[in-house]
Amino acid sequence: MTTAVIASPSELAIKTDGLTKRFGRQTVVDDLALSVPRGSVFGFLGPNGSGKTTTIRMLLGLAQASAGDISVLGERMPQRLGGVLPRVGALIEGPGFYPFLSGSANLHRLDSADGFAPRGTRSERVAHALDRVGLSHAADKKVRAYSLGMKQRLGIANALLAPRDLIVLDEPTNGLDPQGTREVRSLIRSLADEGTTVFVSSHLLAEIEQMCTHAAVMRAGRLVAQGTLDELRSAGATRVSITTPDVEAATRVLLALGLDPGLPDATGPVAASVAGAASAGQPGTILSAALPEAVAPEDIVAKLVADGVRVRGFSVDHASLEDLFVALTGEGFDVVQ
Amino acid sequence: MSSSDSGATPVRSGLTERRNRRSVGLGFFASELAVLFRRRRTWAMLLALAAVPILIAVAVRISSSGSSGRGPAFIDSITQNGLFVGVAGLTIAIPLFLPLTVGVVSGDSIAGEANTATLRYLLVSPVGRIRLLVVKYLAAAVFCLAATLTLSIAGILIGIALFPVGPVTLLSGDTVSIGDSLVRSLLIALYATVSLLGLSAIGLFISTLTDAPVGAMAATVVLSIVAQVLDSLSQTEWLHPWLFSHYWLNFADLLRQPIEWSSFGQNALLQLGYVFVFGALAYGRFSSKDILS
Amino acid sequence: MPRTWHRWIPAAAAPVVVGAVVLGGVFAASASADPADKTPQQVLELAASSTVDTFSGTIEQSSNLGLPDASGLGGTGSSGSSNDGDLSSALELLTASHTLRVYVDGPTQSRVQILDDMAERDAIRNGDDLWLYDSKDASAVHSTVPADASGSTETPAEALTPAELATKFLDAVDPSTKVTVGDPVKVAGRSAYDLILTPDSSTTLVSRVDIAVDADTGLPLSVDVFAQGSSDPAFHVAFSSLSLDAPSADLFDFTPPSGTDVTEKALPNRADAPADGSAPDAGSHPEPTVTGTGWDTIVELPASGDATLPSDTSMLSQLTTPVEGGHVLQTTLLTVLITDDGRVLAGAVPVDSLLAAAAQ
After folding, report:
1. Chain C residue with Cα closest to A78
2. What is the domain partition of chain C in residue ranges?
3. Which CATH number covers residue A290?
């Protein structure tokens, strides 16, 4: 299922190899091989607790890998941390600020922590970053008085303090209203237009689908899929759905053609456990089955008609990413929105 | 959140000239001090420390029935000379109040950043872990100085306000001018500052062990009390010269004529040893700690 | 960012470095050129010929007399009658550890400071003036030294300097004392001969007295008195720093600060302290009788009605154990018997010897 992104190491913003993190006997990240191409908007998907944040912490040198190699922007991490991190902006698992300082003072402090950031342009850069996330009006307000969404924006502003080659955003739309979510999306797009690689983690599929060019899917610490969105989509099975009262006849026809409407499809890469195969036998029931490449949809219709099956509806559906991700990550996957 | 880049152009050009070499960190040190001294908690602690000599002076002034017969003799002598109030305040504050405030600041140093989640952003900036430790420690040391100076100055001011002021009698029975006595007050404040450097290093180390600042603060303060208890037990006499609190009250040597510098030197050496050992421990712990807060 | 145990190297090295600095200081102090060999007699002569009368230094004194710390017995200095105060401060001098600073410029100018916690006791002699100052109760005592009485002006504190103490022992060297020279020692950064006095007596409590005699000047730098059956000195006094430069003249110019209780006091007619290592015996006004010789000397103070040693003070009852005919204060070096009829006998001998002497 994993689709390798073919790219030379220098074209990769992030590359991990065999990346593993264990806490005691529990393996949180297991043998992860991420490849994030430069210039991509890379969605990092997975349910809560699947190891996304731990992976990001290891990428940024906050946590040590138990095993495996990491390279970020072509440099080995965490050995070259000091040279790499100034080129990386990050929002990690929610914003963290001093509540007793204003938004602007918080950014000043974090910028002063970066020994490479030029002091002369600091105020200008802070003002610009605040402007970019729409917080200029609240720059001098204490962060204590910020709403969750404002803090989130401030966190993104922090990632934008300096020109970055890579921006890592962990759940950037957490706590944002729909308007804020849209703004973040357009911000990410504009960053990508400037050539910045954006690595966005989310448990929200819709978010990833709308703004990413690439995605990887984590499940229980393991990488279960990776590639461009199109690659991921095409990896999903195409399904046919037939609405018919003659369920038994239709089932016979489908079976004769090599389609399996009643049971989970064992041949395709994706288990078809979602659409209502269980309701077979009722008048006007929808029969659904994965479509093997060898069978043309029109042949199915012709055969059904030839066998006198009454067809009320017929459709060919390409699997949605949602189907794919549910299939990959199990029923626990949070598919809100 | 304007996606227009019109305003961005000058900034970007200024930004592309990124420094090749990391700055020494004076900017970050200044920022650390600003964060420390912009906190209300810091000011509350300094005010509480300033209240110690003020309360002593007011209490003595109100009761002013002469010798109480308890406590160090020179608490009584503040009625004769207000310049002693600062020293009296330090004497009262050194065993508990000063370690308390220093424990709060040093115990909070790393754990507090972890608790507000700012630690990960500092590290990703990247601040550099060793640099962060050094800056945090120096800021704690500055707080020690601020605390002892606050105490001394508040004491001297309230002493001038409530009591007669004049040439000061030293422990040796010699009398020195007001100017000389102010210099000695400053030296005593410095002595107390140096005395607290070891405890600050211990607090820094404990602070790297946990994400709960309150726990680190409490542990640091408790250790300072334990050290003083051990220092007062004759059963642990072999340990006494190694306890960081051993020379805390020996600042009285600065009130002799001539000044007895040996305790200043011994104290400084001892504190330096603590800074070395616990600085190294803090480095060992923090340099590869997983930041998961 | 080191990944493994490397990061703990500094933490492991730091205590080693600190230890090395501390121990290194000790080694550096012990490693230096030894002075030329001398016979015990030559060292005795060297000490006797010492003419150092101008110096300043710090003295560390500690006692392990098997007595409770008198400072914990309440009322050192600051309490009670002056007589009780005298006794307790004398006891305190003997039983507790002290740091003293001594400034001496010629025979008539000297200053001794006992550095107490948060306090100080000073004894200043400047020409004919003798001042005692105690910062605890801001009191001063002034006396005028009679022109011809230079030998009797010693204060208890002054008696604690290694030179004064050593002189007492050296003056008492007689045929009952075996004198040897040990390996050269370092005291206060100066090389010194280690003169060892061993009593040739089976009845004394003193097993050995070590005196470090400065190789350059003959000035005694330290005195260690060992009790029978102990390898740690029961009484130790030594310079921790010493300068032979003249101290600042300001130091001897003492004017009691305003607010000080100044008492004028005539100098007591004191006898020389016994030469048996019992150290200063402050406040012993009555004329004592001396029996025995050398290390076995017993000093007897007749009952005088003087309240100097009231046997019923709580402090004494805490310190002494009752025996037949009186109370005994037993230390590792010195035994004091207070008979029920008020006599006081003291000596560096076992209690039986005192009882025998008392019975005579």
Report:
1. C1
2. 289-359
3. 3.30.70.100
pLDDT tens for each residue of C51-101: 888 889 999 988 887 765 544 444 333 333 344 455 666 667 767 788 899
Bridge partner list, B220: none
* A-chain residue closest to C1, CA distance: A79
What's the rounded Cα separation, in Å, for the pair A161 and A153? 12
On whether the CB atoms of residues B255 and B171 are closer than 8 A, the answer is yes
In this complex, the chains that touch A, judged by 3 or more CB pairs closer than 8 A, are B, C
Query: Please, are residues A88 and A164 in contact by the beta-carbon 8 Å criterion?
Result: yes
Q: Assess C3–A contact: CB distance below 8 Å, yes or no.
A: yes
- Out of A198, A233, A268, a domain closes at A233
Query: Could you tell me if A269 and A289 lie in one domain?
Result: yes
Q: Which CATH number fits the domain that encloses residue A153?
A: 3.40.50.300
pLDDT of C175 reads 77
Range of the domain at A251: 237-318
Closest CB to B16: pick one of A108, A163, A187.
Answer: A163
Residues A144 and A166 in one domain: yes
Q: Which helix (H) or strand (E) holds C226?
A: strand C220-227
What would the mean pLDDT of B200-222 be, rounded to a whole number? 95
Name every chain C residue with its beta carbon within 8 A of the beta carbon of B83. Answer: none
> Average pLDDT of chain A?
82
The ipTM value here is 0.84
Task: State how far the alpha carbon of C15 is from the alpha carbons of A204, B249, C20, C22, in Å.
Answer: 53, 25, 8, 10
* Residue C3: band (very low, low, confident or very high) from pLDDT cuts 50, 70, 90: low
Are residues A288 and A276 in contact, defined by beta-carbon separation less than 8 angstroms? yes
Contacts of B119 in chain A (CB under 8 A): 96
- Domain assignment of residue A334, yes or no: no
Chains that touch C (3 or more CB pairs under 8 A): A, B
* End position of a domain, from candidates A233, A250, A274: A233
Distances from the Cα of A70 to the Cα of A67, A88, B226, angstroms: 10, 15, 46
* Cβ-based contacts of A111 with chain B (< 8 Å): 125
Closest C-alpha to A281, from A317, A250, A253: A250
A318 φ/ψ angles, rounded to the nearest 5 degrees: -75, 140
Q: Helices in B163-261 by DSSP H: which ranges? A: 178-195, 197-209, 213-232
Residue A285 to residues A259, A323, C216: CA-CA distances in angstroms?
17, 21, 117
CB-CB contact of A309 with A244 (8 Å): yes
The torsion of the CA quartet A215, A220, A223, A229, rounded to 10 degrees, works out to: -20
Residues A38, A162, single domain; the answer is yes
